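Thread: Newbie trying to understand structure tokens

Hi all, I'm a second-year student working on a class project, and my supervisor (Dr. K.) asked me to get a predicted structure for one chain before our next meeting. I've only ever worked with sequences, so writing a 3D structure as a token string is new to me. If someone could post the tokens and maybe explain what I'm looking at, I'd be very grateful. Here's the chain:
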Amino acid sequence: MDSMNRSMEEGHQEGVDRRSPLRILVVTQCFYPDIYAVNDIVEEMVKRGHKVTVLTGLPDYTTSKIPPEYRHGKRRHEHYKGADVYRVQTIARHHGPLWRSLNYLSFVVSGSLRAWTQDFTKTDAGFDVIYVWEVSPVTMAVPAIRLAKRYRKPLFLYCMDIWPECVKAMGITESNPAFPLIHAWSRLIYNACDHIAVSSKPFFTYLEKMNRVPLSRLSYLPQ
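---
Reply by user tm_fold:
Sure, no problem. This is what the structure looks like when written as tokens:
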């Protein structure tokens, strides 16, 4: 967590006392009650005195279906370990590439709409930095980019999965017509971030060469 704080400070805007607790807006498609490391990160942020707000989707990872208690508009605002959690509508991932793609797209659309329509500055005087916990897909950062532009706040991304390399595991290789489009999207998203921490050192070379991200905006943050 100490290394994460240092990495976030590298991308933090000038004029903010870095010794003071931060107001952090976490954007991630994956969150509790699904089991992900970001749950522990948010809990630790709160323990360290930071004010944390989370923008996320609906849980569906364990069963590939949205639990009944989260359907029909239920539990769109709740609390987790001291953090405020706002959920947007997403399509359950079910099984197969089509459903997974719809699941990814639904968070991009719903999250971006929420980014434009909800006034996050009213949540305890707004926030200082936007934090994206990025596993697949990289498109989960799109709502965060919207928020960063709207409020002119620094955007910090913690890269756990590297795109477009990850899509090769789904059978989408360079010969697939969709690959150049996915590559272009990935490049735009990564370059929209003020700072990126990577969980693996080889990501440095990949992000620099494949996605043209300057090394000055990258740092190493192992899991």
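A couple of things are worth pointing out once you decode it. The helical segments are 2-10, 37-47, 97-117, 142-151, 178-191, 202-211. The chain has six helices and eight strands. Feel free to ask follow-ups in this thread.
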